[in-house]
Write a structure and sequence with these properties.
191 residues, alpha+beta, two-stranded antiparallel sheet
Length: 191
């Protein structure tokens, strides 16, 4: 089977701390989920895995560094964002994901709404939390790594994934699709 690549069409947004969370609009705050990155440990099952490719090896190396140096918990929306008529970020079910805007647009949008870009450390820590959750619901350690870091076909919107009906027409699934461990749209903006 051909390896599918994932390239995000918009940046992922995170919120660092509870103080910042207090300044976020109520409608956005309702869809935020706390990512307990500070609870990641070198003893976690997923950290006992031997990487099968360079991408997994790089992620594991970064994950070790994050765990060794510590990382604070942060907040992340459980759905992809969409836009209202005035191009404000909304988090609602069943809408077209917000795509097609440049970095400057996102930066201004995030600043105006109390959000921030996620750091690489937060993104990799989110991978770790996601793998930990996948293992908890019954995925093998190897499958958790493969799904999260190598080939997200089980989580994403591809014509070959379960229920993947949109890719063939270049449409994106509506926001709130494909729940995986409390988060949605994990591969929605991949192509």
């Amino acid at each position: 089977m051909k390896e599918l690549k994932c390239r995000s069409r918009f940046p992922k947004e995170f919120i660092r701390d509870d103080e910042v969370l207090g300044r976020v609009r109520d409608d956005i705050r309702k869809v935020l989920v706390k990512v307990e990155a500070s609870k990641l440990s070198l003893d976690d099952k997923f950290m006992q895995y031997t990487p099968k490719n360079n991408r997994e090896a790089s992620i594991k190396k970064t994950m070790k560094s994050i765990i060794n140096h510590g990382i604070e918990d942060f907040w992340r929306p459980k759905y992809d964002p969409s836009f209202d008529e005035e191009f404000r970020i909304l988090y609602v079910l069943g809408k077209k994901p917000a795509v097609g805007r440049n970095f400057k647009f996102w930066l201004k949008c995030f600043q105006n709404q109390g959000l921030q870009f996620g750091t690489i450390r937060q993104y990799i820590a989110f991978y770790g939390c996601q793998m930990k959750a996948l293992i908890k619901i019954g995925e093998t350690v190897e499958d958790a790594w493969h799904m999260t870091c190598t080939n997200s076909i089980k989580m994403g919107n591809y014509t070959t994934s379960n229920g993947g009906r949109y890719l063939s027409t270049r449409e994106l699934e509506p926001t709130g699709s494909r729940e995986i461990c409390g988060f949605y749209d994990s591969g929605n903006t991949c192509y």
